[in-house]
Amino acid sequence: MIAPGSWLGLLGGGQLGRMFAMAAQSMGYKVMVLDPGADSPAGSVADHHIQADYLNRAALEELAKHCKAATTEFENVPADSLTFLAQHCLVSPSAQSVAIAQDRIREKRFLASIGIGVGPFAVIESEAELHQVDAAALLPGILKLSRLGYDGKGQICVRTPEELRSAYARFGGKPCVLERMLDLALEVSVVVVRDFGGDIVTFPVSENEHLNGILDLTIVPARVEENIAAQARDATVRVTQALDYRGVLCVEYFLLHDGQLLANEIAPRPHNSGHYTIDACVTSQFEQQARVLAKLPLGDTALHCPAAMVNILGDAWAKGEPDWRTVLATPRAKLHLYGKSEARPGRKMGHFTILGDEATSVVSTARDIRARLLSGATP
Ligand code: ADP
Ligand code: MG
Known about the structure:
Oligomer: single chain
Shape: globular
CATH architecture of the largest domain: 2-Layer Sandwich
Number of domains: 3
CATH topology of the largest domain: D-amino Acid Aminotransferase, Chain A, domain 1
Structural class: alpha+beta
Helix content: 25-40%
Bound molecules: adenosine-5'-diphosphate, magnesium ion
Strand content: 25-35%
């Protein structure tokens, strides 16, 4: 075990890193963040912030010199940086598992190879493959850049072969996957944690609603049949074991109207749909990340009560600083802000979680507060 008081390293300075740092610090660890930004959400709460590029060798050496273990908070961290760190300290997740999850082509092939259902798709890595696309099977569809997309970025909806060609050209001919646009009944996700000894625990299945490709609302427990929830948990455990994954991971799923559950994507880190765990579970996903890294026993993932989490985007600042009493005067509501100074539309600025006795009322309270925050109404 890595003793409290030791340094833990973190690549990335976003809100996921901030919540990891706060969880690790509450257990007595010191956190060193490597991030190029001057005042990042994680950098500003870290015990030490190295402001440098993720591939900067001197910065990685400094991190490796002080930290007994290191982790990451976003999947686009260069796999090379993790490989370098792994020569000096414990690293979770591994460069290999991150490399699969950060590349949609590899990710889809990996999921299919272990027998997990994915929707109809085609890999497009060349003009030749572009022209071979089975338009009848895959259009209307979504062309997704294989690498570096997030929150719906790097995706273009395409209805016709002409639109597909111009979208591929707009992406500069970079490797892409074309997915058929599916008629979704629901989206769910499962956050799972696996430690260095192979112990594995899953969090409750969450139900997710997206708006413009960005997560808007998470409801827990997901309002799905128990057999669907069990399938999602089992598939997530299989993915985690097949990757020999160490750390916190999330798998997103599409549920179709005929009951088919298809894997959408893998996030090799704590996930936005797991933010509710901070307030609604015995152990949060961020505390689990710290526990894995420090080789401590995994915590209990039990849910205290039904919960709904809403993302607060920069759009809520349209009429100036939102009136936070809207959230805070609500019984059993918890507010989390990420300390970002500039509120831009679509930018994740924070989230709030509503706790309650049953899913229907937490969802309606959450939607009501969300609407009032966005309209700028006073409580
Ligand atoms: P990101 O990396 O931005 O999260 P996703 O592939 O998860 O990218 O897409 C974001 C959201 O867009 C999904 O959660 C879903 O709501 C919608 N979406 C993505 N792919 C499809 C699809 N093939 N059919 C229907 N909706 C989709
Ligand atoms: Mg996604």
